[in-house]
């Protein structure tokens, strides 16, 4: 499949580059990590959404195999989204039947394809870098806070929740405190051993061919079996619970399909549009964040991603799944595990399918505490101290939006938090623009002072106040040169201020000369503004 930046052109799919030995030796271990991370999240999100557990796993499979194959991103991983659980739960309740909700999901997928065709993915180019960095750090902090209860015992909140207020009547802080009163020392031992393996096993170069997460899972199963019938025994709710399928008939009976007879229901269309918008925003945010931590610094085609997600959601709706997005937790685990291509995402989807069909009993032996250790390491890498130091050295205009985004995401949820961070980030962008619409130079021509004002490349309406204040404060009896030779665009309001100033300046003994300034400027195309937002 040929990749056209910003689009989704389809050509010949070059599979060779995805199956090179140098890529496979990184992608296959990474796919195992993503599989282990995704499995409990898929189940938890399905439970919180009021949907069958099978729907969560099915969505993970489709997100991996279908979206992973069609996406232009090499490292993002799609699956059921925690940010949509409330929308899904309310939709299933209000629409009256799960099959009717599935119709809304199919329509949402169609809307996403249309958004991709209309190139709505370009909105991702306007996310400030400091806000994306803040979102990544916030997700890291949330992972640490949300996984701590599973690492030391048990948490009634669903796996994958990213919101501050939880369904179990706790919040992120009280959930941590509550976990301390429910400590299971067997789970604590498994978590400590798992963390030690994650940290130290990769240091043994000769042994590192066996992925540390696989060793963590095997050690977790072995310890949980050893603790059985002792005071350290784990409770049933402290293990993964994947549906056990005993026959092909039972497996195919789990699938559901959309009820197209409800196509005229207005509420179905409202739900579909809501899912499409929220899922698309989460996807674009995750995609931007993954590109930020990609060690090779590749740029993912956003419009193609919207189309891939749309096809994934249509498939999910037709088979009985849940809405999906590109998910930052799974994607960041993928990056931190060393993945290089989309093979990792596709294989993780296949592993979910294999686990459901062939080894559900074995999968149900995995303690949640050892999977929590894997996510704790992922959280630590996302919220590392070095990132805070780096953002501080970038200056307050970067550090403040970064910190505000972290606090907002941790204390609300992903979309609201990023929205607050965006407002602060935009404030600093506007503040910078207001200060930099021109270059100011003072020279002398004999005894007379000459002030040269060279306008910037883009002079927008936002610069109007700054230019007006500067012009009215120029001293009497000077020569003023306003140079527009570098400008591709000057807003009509700014041009009016300049011409009015020239007309009236003689009253203060000021001589104004305009250099290379047009009477009118055409608005630059959107794609040019995208790469030159000032």
UniProtKB/TrEMBL annotation:
Regions crossing the membrane: 28-47, 53-70, 77-95, 101-118, 125-145, 183-201, 208-227, 268-285, 306-329, 349-378, 399-430
Domain of life: Bacteria
Keywords carried by this UniProt record: Membrane, Transmembrane, Transmembrane helix
Annotated InterPro entries: SLC26A/SulP_dom, SLC26A/SulP_fam
A Pfam family it matches: Sulfate_transp
Membrane topology per record: Multi-pass membrane protein
Subcellular location: Membrane
GO BP, one annotated term: transmembrane transport
Major localization listed first in the record, in broad terms: membrane
Annotated Gene Ontology cellular component terms: membrane
Ranges for domain SLC26A/SulP transporter: 24-401
Name of the protein: SulP family inorganic anion transporter
Natural source organism: Mucilaginibacter ginsenosidivorax
């Amino acid at each position: 499949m040929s990749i056209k930046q910003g689009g989704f052109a389809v050509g010949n799919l070059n599979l060779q580059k995805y199956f090179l030995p140098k890529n496979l030796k990184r992608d296959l271990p990474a796919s195992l990590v993503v599989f282990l991370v995704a499995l409990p999240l898929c189940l938890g999100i399905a439970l919180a959404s009021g949907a069958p557990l099978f729907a969560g796993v099915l969505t993970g499979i489709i997100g991996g195999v279908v979206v992973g194959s069609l996406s232009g991103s090499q490292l993002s991983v799609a699956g059921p989204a925690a940010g949509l659980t409330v929308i899904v739960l309310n939709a299933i309740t209000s629409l009256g039947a799960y099959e009717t909700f599935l119709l809304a999901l199919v329509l949402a997928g169609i809307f996403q394809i249309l958004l991709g065709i209309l190139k709505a993915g370009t909105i991702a180019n306007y996310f400030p870098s400091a806000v994306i960095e803040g979102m990544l750090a916030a997700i890291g902090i949330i992972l640490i806070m949300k996984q701590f209860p599973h690492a030391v015992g048990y948490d009634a909140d669903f796996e994958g929740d990213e919101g501050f207020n939880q369904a179990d009547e706790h919040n992120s802080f009280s959930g941590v405190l509550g976990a301390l009163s429910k400590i299971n020392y067997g789970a604590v031992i498994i978590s400590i051993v798992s963390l030690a393996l994650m940290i130290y096993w990769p240091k043994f170069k000769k042994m590192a061919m066996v992925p540390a997460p696989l060793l963590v899972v095997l050690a977790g199963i072995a310890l949980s079996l050893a603790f059985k019938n002792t005071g350290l025994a784990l409770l049933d709710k402290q293990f993964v619970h994947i549906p056990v399928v005993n026959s092909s008939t039972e497996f195919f009976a789990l699938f559901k399909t959309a009820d197209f007879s409800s196509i005229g229901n207005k509420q179905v269309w409202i739900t579909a549009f809501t899912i499409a918008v929220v899922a698309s925003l989460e996807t674009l945010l995750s995609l931007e964040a993954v590109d930020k931590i990609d060690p090779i610094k590749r740029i993912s085609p956003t419009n193609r991603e919207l189309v891939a997600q749309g096809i994934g959601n249509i498939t999910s709706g037709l088979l009985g799944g849940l809405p999906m997005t590109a998910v930052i937790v799974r994607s960041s685990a993928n990056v931190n595990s060393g993945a290089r291509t989309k093979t990792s995402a596709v294989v993780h989807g296949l592993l979910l399918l294999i686990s459901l069909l062939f080894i559900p009993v074995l999968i149900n032996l995995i303690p949640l505490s050892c999977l929590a250790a894997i996510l704790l390491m992922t959280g630590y890498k996302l919220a590392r101290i070095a990132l805070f130091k780096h953002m501080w050295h970038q200056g307050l205009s970067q550090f403040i939006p970064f910190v505000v985004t972290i606090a907002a995401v941790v204390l609300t949820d992903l979309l609201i938090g990023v929205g607050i961070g965006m407002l602060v980030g935009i404030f600093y962008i506007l503040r910078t623009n207001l200060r930099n619409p021109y270059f100011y130079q003072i020279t002398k021509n004999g005894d007379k002072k000459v002030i040269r004002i060279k306008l910037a490349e883009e002079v927008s309406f936002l610069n109007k106040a700054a230019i007006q204040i500067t012009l009215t404060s120029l001293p009497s009896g000077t020569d003023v040169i306003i140079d527009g030779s570098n400008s591709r665009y000057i807003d009509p309001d700014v041009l009016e201020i300049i011409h009015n100033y020239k007309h009236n300046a003689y009253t203060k003994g000021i001589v104004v000369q305009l250099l290379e300034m047009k009477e009118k400027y055409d608005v630059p195309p959107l794609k040019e503004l995208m790469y030159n937002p000032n």
